[in-house]
Amino acid sequence: xxxxxxxxxxxxxxxxxxxxxxxxxxxxxxxxxxxxxxxxxxxxxxxxxxxxxxxxxxxxxxxxxxxxxxxxxxxxxxxxxxxxxxxxxxxxxxxxxxxxxxxxxxxxxxxxxxxxxxxxxxxxxxxxxxxxxxxxxxxxxxxxxxxxxxxxxxxxxxxxxxxxxxxxxxxxxxxxxxxxxxxxxxxxxxxxxxxxxxxxxxxxxxxxxxxxxxxxxxxxxxxxxxxxxxxxxxxxxxxxxxxxxxxxxxxxxxxxxxxxxxxxxxxxxxxxxxxxxxxxxxxxxxxxxxxxxxxxxxxxxxxxxxxxxxxxxxxxxxxxxxxxxxxxxxxxxxxxxxxxxxxxxxxxxxxxxxxxx
Length: 357
Known about the structure:
alpha+beta, six-stranded mixed beta sheet, 11 helices, metal-binding, EC 3.1.-.-, DNA-(apurinic or apyrimidinic site) endonuclease, hydrolase
């Protein structure tokens, strides 16, 4: 049976009688104020554990292309839990699927009827990783490698690059650093070669990069208007926002939130000076689009099935869109589909982009 819908938290406020007495009116106004609902918490997210009964999204902005990325945690399993209902509601021009766990390219009428151009990168290890790009737009070329990476078997199943006339579109399922960080070296090797790769592509054409990046980017610094309050008014409060729950507890202990991983991601966004003698500050080369549009929100794309993480709101923001800075003004919307949970342990992320590929 579908989950019960949460009842509204708003309390009905009784209408007051007209009263000419000023003090009496003031008292009634005060009582009303106490009964009003508090301001909604902007960080609040749905806690459903199955897909909603009905899925509807706002129509896309005219003149835009809609892209969506979703770690499906096994496509076959996700399809049994309502995958198609999300796809029908979202209807993206390009759909990126990660952790597909496919052993062969699937024969799926739902996907083939919607997307004439389908590209699958399948791992050598059965039932493991896997990436797909399903597109309504035919690319000029398709590549499933990272040039210079010494271990093709590590790369296989984790990246697909589509070249279009005006852009490169990269889909990745970045390696995980593993339990007890046992595969952090593998992750570091990936980051090293991928950073070189994406920078080289960016020199030729602007890049759109998406998928499961397997890193909680890092803490977000003080926003300018908050900094003014702190310095001028002497206010003291926490003005740091993070991309995961319990950040301090997880730092350098949990895959996805180590100094090596967050530094590598930050170095893609803002390359470090080539030498210590370089006095110029690093320029921003790529932009984490969701964070740029939502600088202060604690919203997540991944909630572990274990320990009731979803119902407790304990999550990580691992999936995003990263774009070359020079094209970010073309982004008209980027949202985490926070209520699309249950067909996977991840929520999809969607972006609307103005122009042509």
